[in-house]
Amino acid sequence: MSRAARTTAAVVGALLVLAIVALGILAALGLREGDPPAAGAAPAWAGVPADASAEVSRSAAAAAAAAAAGADPAELLRARGAYLARAGNCVGCHTVRGQPEFSGGRPVPTPFGTLFSTNLTSDPAHGIGDWTADDFWRALHLGKSRDGRLLYPAFPYTDYTRTTREDADAIFAYLRSLPAAAQPTPPAQMRFPFDQRWMLALWRGLYFRPGVYAPEPARGDVWNRGAYLVQGLGHCGACHTPRDWLGAPQSDRALAGGRIPVLDWYAPGLGAMPVREATDAGGAADDPHAWVGLLRNGISPTAVIVGPMAEVVRNSLQHLAPSDLRAISTYLQSLPPMPAAPAVVAARGTPVSTGVMARGGKLYADHCADCHGRDGQGAGTAYPRLAGNRALTDEPAVNAIRIVLNGGFAPGTHGNPRPYGMPPFAPAFDDQQAADLVSYVRNAWGNRGGAVQSYEVNRYRSAPPD
Ligand code: HEC
Ligand code: HEC
Ligand code: HEC
């Protein structure tokens, strides 16, 4: 190595060390904000609502009934934990289909490599059987494993940190009651340099602020309950908030709509949502939160839940107490509508030619009108209405394209146990035909959306189904 090269290397090295030290200090400063475990009476916006008992999972409902009959308080704690674990959809990520619930090992893809969820059963070797409540609190609140390892934020502890200590203890008590499954967690497959867990200290210093939810007293208990669930256990922002290039949620655009990396679905902005649903009157007329029917049943006369959101409804939201869904609705309705990003505004302006409309209209009449109606009016809650359906005109158009290519089902729920399915059309259409068709449904019957190009369709042909 020449002298000049050696000097340069030394300078670069020194700068790197300096940067790491500086960021490390920042990280340490950030993390010192961790608050002490809450003490005293549980706040009204935390815990489990009174109308939950019939809604919680079967074992938990039985436990709640037993507790009401003067039974074991430990049982009641576990029942509360079961409900709160539902609210957090812990089972979704921590279960592989066909394996025991919570035994972990499900791959969680990230732009930086693949992680595997861990075993949360009471197995002492592979699960959390020998964890203490403090260990569990550190994982949920601070994102640290029992051995001090920093955890990747694909485990959404950046949201779960809002959860109170009481609620975390209840979830822990519930998990500890699960039968042990001796299933080891596969090692993470992250690419260099993201496989270096210590680097997470830097990320955390920049992006992670641990802290239990701080209520806004002026807003009242219902609003605060909704905010507590949405920002905390519900981790809605994990998908609905846009992320920057380091995978960090953009806090100034919370719930403004985000593209889910790798899975490639678009989770629309939630700020404007309730207004649309309220005016659509998609539920009981006397219910000011009519749109919560969509979150409970997975389908309404004007919308249907698809893609990764289907799992959220199936595992989590359909099990929540009516008061909790109304609280979530109250909070979301109070969010200001976010102005669209410039790229979105530009894409909306892409005009659709009359030729595309003619070709797309012909394909629609031949392949789609039987179910969705000649004028896109749909058929009750069996076949969703496409006229005036926001899911179609969202920018980007990825969800509409993927549904046409892959078909699919709304989630099976108590309210809609046998959902109708939509057949996949990927084999029937080439890229240009599918693009024409989606452009058509985005602009027929008064809908307004930008034109879809054939290369966009091509890109989603190989995307993972959900
Ligand atoms: C979006 C997927 C996802 C959801 C939802 C999720 N987890 Fe996880 N969880 C993970 C992943 C991935 C890891 C492993 C992270 C790592 O390797 O750094 C993990 C790790 C953990 C750990 C650390 C275990 C250990 O051995 O260090 C605990 C505890 C945990 N999760 C509990 C929960 C609880 C409780 C919930 C629900 C409130 C939950 N998780 C919801 C994906 C998820
Ligand atoms: C795993 C990612 C993910 C999480 C977590 C998530 N969502 Fe979604 N959500 C989506 C996607 C993707 C869509 C778009 C597909 C659809 O419309 O069903 C969506 C759509 C929605 C819609 C609109 C449905 C429609 O068709 O109009 C609502 C309302 C919604 N989500 C609310 C929530 C709430 C409330 C939470 C938190 C409790 C949440 N979501 C958590 C991914 C997610
Ligand atoms: C056999 C009946 C059937 C046919 C034919 C059919 N669909 Fe569907 N479609 C459904 C059902 C059921 C759903 C709701 C479940 C789902 O999303 O998978 C749906 C959902 C959709 C959605 C999602 C709406 C939303 O709110 O997210 C779009 C878009 C759509 N269909 C477009 C089309 C187009 C375009 C065609 C013609 C190529 C077509 N469908 C053909 C039954 C059908």
Write structural notes for this entry.
Helices cover 43% and strands 6% of the residues. With 466 residues, it is mainly alpha-helical. It folds into three domains: 17-33 and 53-207, no CATH class; 232-333, no CATH class; 350-461, Cytochrome Bc1 Complex, Chain D, domain 2 (Orthogonal Bundle), CATH 1.10.760.10. It has a three-stranded antiparallel β-sheet, with no helix packed on it. A hairpin with a 2-residue loop joins strand 1 (107-110) and strand 2 (113-116). Mean pLDDT is 85; it is low at 11-18, 24-36 and 274-287. The protein binds heme C (3 copies). One heme C binds next to helix 10, strand 5, helix 13 and helix 18.
Quick description:
The protein has 466 residues and is mainly α.
Q: Can you summarize the main beta sheet?
A: 3 strands, antiparallel
- Beta-strand content estimate: 5-15%
Count of the separate structural domains: 3
Helix content: 40-55%
Q: How many E strands?
A: 9
Please tally the helical runs, counting DSSP H or I stretches of 4 or more residues.
21
Shape: globular
Low-confidence segments, ≥5 residues, pLDDT <50? Answer: 11-18, 24-36, 274-287
Q: Could you spell the SSE succession in H and E letters?
A: HHHHEEHHHEHHHEEHHEEHHHHHHHEEHH
Q: What small molecules does this complex bind?
A: heme C
Nearest-integer average pLDDT: 85
Radius of gyration equals 24 Å
Main sheet: strand order: 1-2-3
Q: Roughly how many Å apart are the termini?
A: 51 Å
**Structural category:** mainly alpha
